Amino acid sequence: MRASEGYEAGQGSCHLPYESKWTELDLFPLSYRQLHGDLIQTYRIVRGCECALEFDVFFELARTDNLRNHPFKLQMKLAHMDVRWNAFSQTVLGA
């Protein structure tokens, strides 16, 4: 049974605040779902799996030798403006 099938006409959750709606419907909040999608996209970009986006456009590898056999450490670029701070690469690395 879908979460929306349990509601009859006129008994919806339109009177509830946003947080209560997704809790009642057993869903994750929008910010969590957006971050989850961004992390999946980041994995595809870094690994080159089924992605047409270039790695060099979004990310930069960290320049360090002590990665314990993990060559995919990403370097966070400096952000002086809000536009850059809210960019895809910054939000993913700041998560």
Structural commentary:
The chain is mainly alpha-helical and 95 residues long. It has one domain (3-93). 41% of the residues lie in helices and 4% in strands. It contains five helices and two strands, in the order H-H-H-E-E-H-H. It has helices at residues 18-24, 30-47, 55-58, 82-85, 88-93, and strands at 60-61, 74-75. Strands 1-2 form a two-stranded antiparallel ribbon. The longest helix is centred in the middle third of the chain and has 18 residues, at 30-47. The radius of gyration is 19 Å and the shape is elongated. The relative contact order is 0.11.
Q: Give the amount of beta strand, in percent.
A: under 5%
In DSSP terms, counting alpha (H) and pi (I) runs of 4 or more, how many helices? 5
Care to count the β-strands?
2
Note the overall shape: elongated
Count of separate structural domains: 1
How far apart are the first and last residues' alpha carbons, in Å? 34 Å
Q: Which oligomerization state do the chains in this entry correspond to?
A: single chain
Biggest sheet, in brief? 2 strands, antiparallel
Question: Which structural class best describes the helix and strand composition?
Answer: mainly alpha
Ranges with pLDDT <50 over ≥5 residues? none
Computed CA radius of gyration, to the nearest angstrom: 19 Å
Global mean pLDDT:
73
Helix-strand topology string: HHHEEHH
Estimate the helix proportion, in percent.
40-55%
